[in-house]
Amino acid sequence: MRRVLLVILLLSIASAATFKNKLDYSKKRSITSVMAEVEAKIQTKAPLDAILNVLRDFRDSVNFEQVNHDEIYQIQVRECESEDEFRSKEVQDAKNILRDSTAQLNVCQTSKIRATNQQEVNQHQTFTAEKHLNMVMTAAEQEASYFKKRGRDYEDALHAIDEASDILAAIYSGSGSFAEISRVSKVMLQTSFSIKETAKFAPILYAFSQLASSKDFDETSLERVAQLLDTLKQNIHEAYNDYAESNAQSIAAFNDQKERIGQTLARLAAQAERLQDKLDHLVQCIGTNSAIAQTASGKLQRNQQLWDQATALCATFQNEYNFATQARRNELQLVSQLEEMVEDRFGQVEDENHERKLRLSQN
So which residues are the signal peptide here (predicted)? Predict the structure, then answer.
């Protein structure tokens, strides 16, 4: 049974010897050579201690190698733990930076889209306000030109009324003629159309036509016509003043509207400036966080690869240590088996010698 176990151990050690261990710091040794040396000493009837010393030397060599390997292994374990801690921190830092920069990048990109839309709305509102202001300015210019022309028409009407009064006074004094009345009546009729006050001019024009067709008139008739002229002049003055007041109100309304549109344009201009500043900031934010995210991604990939390589290498160290340690245990077990076998054999030899001596003594 011991011999079967010995064969199994020999096969195990032989297979371990074929494994190229990077941490094998011992000189080359062979259990087969040790067994041959033990066998030779037995054949030459060497003392038991000499044979056991060969096995003890082999055991000490194995133990010495294991101690050295344990020291190297502990250094490797500390290095692997340090590398694992360092790479873990680097990977986590890169993940955190990548997460935060990506989140900020998304916020900046979304804000940029919103700000761009607001800018487009601002530009449309500015275009609409400028168009409205141009329309208001054009209307104001047209209205000012119309008022100027209409004012001249009112002045012409008042001038015609004054001229008619003068002619009527001349006729009253005997120096005037009805031909002048006919001429000024035509002027008054034209100005009544221009200022759209024909209803107010109708009584005096009718009175003038009556005077022109009548061959016989008195002072009372002339006074009545003069009174009509005074009333007409007063009415036209009031109409002119009302028109001027209406125009003043229109100008005030125009100025108010112009001011409000100007305020709107100023607000839109300030908003446009703020939006442009915001867009510039967001573009810079997108560029900065894109660069940060790209750098963090590269750092993450690089450190993850180094971490994986270190983990694989440390696993290799562990496997090599376990394999070599088990091989040395097998060697030590085999040495123990050899020691027992040698001691048993020496015991058998002593028994045989003792029996031989007994037989010789009995003969």
Answer: 1-16
pLDDT digits (tens, 9 = 90+) for 57-102: 888 899 999 999 999 999 999 999 999 999 999 999 999 999 999 9
pTM comes to 0.59
Output the pLDDT for position 217: 61
Per-residue pLDDT of 30-54, as tens digits, reads: 778 878 887 887 777 788 888 888 8
